[in-house]
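Researcher: We're teaching a course module on how sequence relates to structure. For the next exercise, students receive a sequence and then see the predicted structure as tokens, so they can try to spot secondary structure elements on their own. Here is the exercise chain.
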Amino acid sequence: MQTDLDRIRFIGFRSAGSCKFLDGKLAFELNEFANSKNVLYAFVVAGHLMYIGKTVQTLRKRMAGYRSPGPTQPTNIKNNGNIRDSLAQGKQVEIYALPDNGLLRYGDFHVNLAAGLEDSLIRKLKPPWNGGKKELTNQATQPVS
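Model: And here is the predicted structure for the students to work with:
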């Protein structure tokens, strides 16, 4: 049986790094995807898909938001806690990324791959760390079949 991690790897997600504690603080070790923009990313804990998100910033800058969340950033605060809890339990926390290669177009217009896929992946795979107003709003506006 194919896992959710297998499914995202199949569509092109690649290992982008990992999370760890460094001197008691959350740290992110990123590979060549660190400076990629328009990225769809995932947190994988002990081989299980836990969260999918997107960023138009570089992946490095987005991860910095999780490392030091501001008081008005509920997603960053929640995932900072989730990552910390997982690491404290001795679980490996990996980051996967699907960078936009810039090739997807609609007529003369570039289509942001991350923006186009995020909602569908979350709806289909239901990662446990996703959820909240954004996803509930999207579900509420879906047509009833």
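Model: If you want an answer key for the exercise: The chain has one domain: 4-140. The chain has a mean pLDDT of 89.
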